[in-house]
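Tokens in:
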């Protein structure tokens, strides 16, 4: 009976493997077409944080080469610590906090340190880090701030007489 049960589960397991392989192929094709480099996103976040006056991201202690390596090395999977941001960022930063327990007051939860961030997806689902990507609320807010600042800089520059 155990053998029959195992055989009955084989088609489902095979379908899961095929779906996993297809997802991997789709991810690789998307990566190739977009030509997206996570280090550029990290650099943009660094610039945004610097312009806000809070300083750049810091590599998490013990992470070694924090993202400077080429290719698929461990550097790309490095973890980073965000600088301290003003209280006006509290709601945005909530997406970077560990899960809140049922009996934990929001003010207590917001005192907890933010989770480290990565600019590449982890190999597994994990609650000990946050993957920052283009649609993440924190990234969206920092990038919007950069666009706002560069727009103001453009207006200042355009008000100057030519030559």
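Residues out:
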């Amino acid at each position: 009976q155990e053998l029959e049960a195992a055989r009955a589960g084989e088609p489902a397991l095979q379908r899961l493997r095929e779906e996993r392989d297809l997802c991997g192929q789709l991810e690789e094709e998307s990566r190739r077409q977009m030509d997206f480099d996570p280090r550029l996103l990290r650099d943009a976040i660094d610039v945004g944080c610097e312009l806000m006056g809070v300083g750049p991201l810091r590599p998490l202690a013990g992470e070694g080469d924090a993202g400077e390596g080429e290719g698929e090395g461990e550097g790309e999977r490095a973890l980073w610590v965000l600088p301290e941001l003003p209280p006006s960022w509290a709601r945005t930063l909530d997406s970077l906090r560990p899960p809140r327990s049922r009996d934990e007051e929001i003010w207590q939860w917001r005192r907890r340190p933010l989770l480290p961030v990565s600019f590449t997806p982890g190999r597994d689902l994990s609650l000990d880090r946050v993957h920052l990507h283009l649609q993440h609320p924190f990234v969206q807010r920092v990038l919007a701030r950069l666009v706002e600042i560069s727009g103001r800089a453009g207006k200042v520059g355009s008000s100057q007489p030519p030559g």
